[in-house]
Amino acid sequence: MKDMDNLPGFRNEPYTDFPVPANRQAMEQALRQVHAQFGREYQLRIGSEWIATGDRLESLNPSNSREVVGVHHKATADLARRAIDCAHAYFPTWSRMPAAERVRLLLDAARILRRRKMEFDAWLVYEAGKSWVEAEADVSEAVDFCEYYAREMLRLAGPQEVVQLAGEEDEMVYIPLGVGVVIPPWNFPLAILVGMTVASLVTGNTVVLKPSSETPTIAAKFAEVLLEAGFPEQSFTLLTGSGSAVGDVLVQHPKTRFISFTGSRDVGLRINELAARPQPGQLWIKRVIAEMGGKDAIVVDADSDLDKAVEGVAVSAFGYQGQKCSACSRAIVDVKVYRPFLEKLAARVKSIRVGPVDDPDNYMGPVISAAARKTILEYIETGKQEGRVIAGGEAPQGDGYFITPTVIADVDSKARVFQEEIFGPVLAVTQAHDFDHALQLANDSQYGLTGAVYTNNPEHLQKAKEQFHVGNLYFNRKCTGAMVGAHPFGGFNMSGTDSKAGGPDYLLLFLQAKSIARKVS
Ligand code: NAP
Fold first, then answer.
1. I need a labelling partner for 52 at 20 to 30 A (CA). Which of 133, 216, 262, 343 fits?
2. Does residue 246 have a pLDDT over 70?
3. Rounded to the nearest whole angstrom, what is the distance from the C-alpha of residue 495 to the centroid of ligand 1?
4. pLDDT for position 123
5. Distance from residue 215's CA to the centre of ligand 1 (Å)
6. Where is 389: in which H helix or E strand?
7. 242 lines ligand 1 (CB under 6 A)
């Protein structure tokens, strides 16, 4: 790994500044170029074989559902089995490739992603309904995952410190696991997909990647990047198709060694349960890395800067239409500042512009699908019974899946809108008698992903540090926007297995340690 000695330390990818006219023009051009590719057909791929099953999967532009972004082919159960068999056959070759070689390929993938950054931004705008700024953050995070895990792999491939017994040479090495099934969600259709896929590959595992059915074109574009970087065709398969149709086959296959999943609680729990049952011919206990839902709270203390708290809650709740696992969906406000907080929040939220996201002046775009819009609107109806709507609550007519940012105040902490993940632009607000009560309400959840506290009281900060039970805790800032390297990401309780993506523990989940002792005297 000598030639890697000059690799500079990890730094987060800087964001493009869109108000700069040249950047704005470049993004407008990327949008035009991507729009010109709408409706193209993409085949799925197993090893070197490109396959058109004829069972079509069309992804739509959620800002204008009459537009088909990409046409894909759905895998069958048979193809899912073949994909695992192909990955299993190539594992001995790929796992023995020197780690430095795999790292070099990954750094190349990062370079290609960086070069195609605005193109990817544009795909995220059109297929996932992300605003320019949100798309840019997603693509930058994808670059960060590649750069960060490349460096982490070099660290883990190097000598590991163990005690040396007298008369022995003692060592410990990390080796890959086997075939990994990677199942990402649509809401970070590039960053999360990239993070889970490259973590699996750089550690020496072969991969069957089953992207979300909402965002298959972004997955197909990233597969192009991996191939261009030089990842062998057999090292990963892109298996588009319905999770409910092929998910069980992939998870239960006896040659599947691990499953890396990010998505909803119910699907994650099902995968965990199925994976735990050994199948005939299976030689191992399958490992499941499952990052799941959230019902994230921001606590606003009596002694806090109210304007900053209002801003933090608004951007955490309504950035990307509230469709982040880290989104604030519960605000818990000390009774002493509850009324002024609500007034300021309602005014702030009513100023949010909603509309198609190819227009950068729209802060909020559409939700991902017609089905998501229906579910969210049903929750808003429930919220009208459980509290008082002080902003939003409407679904503008048209071809986009738009919902206005909605705030439901005076909600009881046992209400459904306070307990269940809605995954849309809906915020429930409740009041607490004091700070202890606020923490108690914040922890009254099956989830434990992110949380934030706004306070100027150092004792309250200390108390929150000890008692607020979430994987990612923030003070006097929003509860979204985790940065690779700085904020390793993953949640407690039903939010998942706390895998801490983008942190120093992450790659260990894709490896197993082998201890070797040699008698020398
Ligand atoms: P989802 O419905 O659970 O789907 C996630 C993935 O699982 C998709 O690729 C889906 O494929 C697949 N899938 C569906 N049924 C399956 C089955 N029976 N077996 C195997 N795979 C199956 O979640 P989503 O709507 O895409 O994403 C939103 C959820 O993800 C929210 O709950 C959010 O909180 C969570 N999330 C968590 C994190 C985190 O880090 N904790 C990050 C982002 C998102 P199809 O699309 O084909 O159905």
1. 262
2. yes
3. 12
4. 98
5. 12
6. strand 388-391
7. yes
Length of the chain measured in residues: 521
Q: What is the pLDDT of residue 451?
A: 98
Whole-model pTM? 0.98
Question: Measured over all CA atoms, what is the biggest interatomic distance in the chain, rounded to whole angstroms?
Answer: 81
- Ligand 1 centre distance from Cα of residue 264 (Å): 5
pLDDT at 2 over 80: no
Across the strands, what pairs with 260? 182, 289
Q: Which two tokens stand for residue 140?
A: 């930058």
Q: Is the CB of 57 under 6 A from ligand 1?
A: no
- 443: nearest Cα among 303, 297, 331: 297
293 lines ligand 1 (CB under 6 A): yes
The pLDDT tens digits for 155-191 are 999 999 999 999 999 999 999 999 999 999 999 999 9
Is 320 a pocket residue for ligand 1 (Cβ < 6 Å)? no
Angle at 293 between CA 323 and CA 80, to 5 degrees: 95
Distance CA 438, CA 441 (A): 5
Q: Which atom, in ligand 1's list, is nearest to the CA of 266?
A: 3
pLDDT tens-digit readout, 404-430? 999 999 999 999 999 999 999 999 999
Q: How far apart are CA 337 and CA 82, in angstroms?
A: 60
Give the closest residue (by CA) to ligand 1 atom 48: 243
Alpha carbons 403 and 136: distance in angstroms, whole number:
23
Mean per-residue pLDDT over the chain, rounded:
97
For ligand 1, is residue 271 a contact (CB within 6 Å)? yes
| 291 close to 499: Cβ distance less than 8 angstroms | yes
Among 262, 265, 269, 470, the mutation site with the greatest number of ligand 1 atoms within 8 A of its Cβ is 262
* Phi, psi dihedral angles at 38 (to 5 degrees): -55, 145
Positive/negative CA dihedral, 476, 480, 481, 485: positive
Chain Cα centroid distance, residue 178: 23
- Are 270 and 183 a contacting pair, CB within 8 Å? no
* Cβ neighbours of 396 (radius 10 Å): 12
Q: 463-499: string of b/e by CB count within 10 Å (b at 16+)?
A: bbeeebbbbbebeebbbbbbebbebbbbbebbbbbbb
The pLDDT tens digits for 106-124 are 999 999 999 999 999 999 9
